[in-house]
Amino acid sequence: MQKYINYRVRVTVQDDRMLVGNLMAFDKHMNVVLSDCQEYRSIKKKGEDLKEVKRSLGFIVLRGENIVTITAEAPPKSQSKRVTETPSVGNVQVIGRGAVIPAVGTIPGTIMTPGHINIPIPTLGSLPIITPGVGVAPISQHVQQPMSTNKKLPQ
């Protein structure tokens, strides 16, 4: 069934109706979702021939309990009109709150502005300014030992 997603399918239901539409989804109970769906019913009046009535339904969910047959009518329309991009590791960008993304060809430690002027990232002495939501590399702690003197304190 998975290979028939986006195919044009004809679904026959228990009450002899036929539903024709694009198969969008299905589940383990064979409930199906059809888009651009049209319903075809055969009506026979007394003394007349069989007449087929067509009705446009649009987007429907059809309960699998009522389905008798599903037949693929036509493959999906050409997908050249759709712009699809397959996700891969090479084209993923993570952007967080306040994160600075260096532009290609910039000097590290600078920000690229719309006028293409490199502005240095502000720092406080030798410590970088911490922005909420942006992590900073751990800074080594220098513990200063108390000064010791050999002199005795006056009593």
TrEMBL record:
Name of protein: Sm protein B
Q: Which InterPro entries match?
A: LSM_dom_sf, Sm, Sm_dom_euk/arc, snRNP_SmB/NAA38-like
Keyword set for this entry?
Answer: Cytoplasm, mRNA processing, mRNA splicing, Nucleus, Ribonucleoprotein, RNA-binding
Species name: Cryptosporidium muris (strain RN66)
Per UniProt, what is one Pfam family of this protein?
LSM
Member of which family? Belongs to the snRNP SmB/SmN family.
Q: Which SUPFAM superfamilies match?
A: Sm-like ribonucleoproteins (SSF50182)
Task: Enumerate the spans annotated as Sm domain.
Answer: 1-76
- Gene3D superfamilies, per the entry: 2.30.30.100
PANTHER family cross-referenced by the UniProt entry? SMALL NUCLEAR RIBONUCLEOPROTEIN-ASSOCIATED PROTEIN B, SMALL NUCLEAR RIBONUCLEOPROTEIN-ASSOCIATED PROTEIN B AND N
PROSITE patterns recorded = SM
**Mind listing the GO molecular function terms for this protein?**
RNA binding; snRNP binding
Q: Which GO terms describe its cellular component?
A: catalytic step 2 spliceosome; cytoplasm; U1 snRNP; U2 snRNP; U2-type prespliceosome; U4 snRNP; U4/U6 x U5 tri-snRNP complex; U5 snRNP
Give any single GO term for biological process.
mRNA splicing, via spliceosome
Report the subcellular localization: Cytoplasm; Nucleus
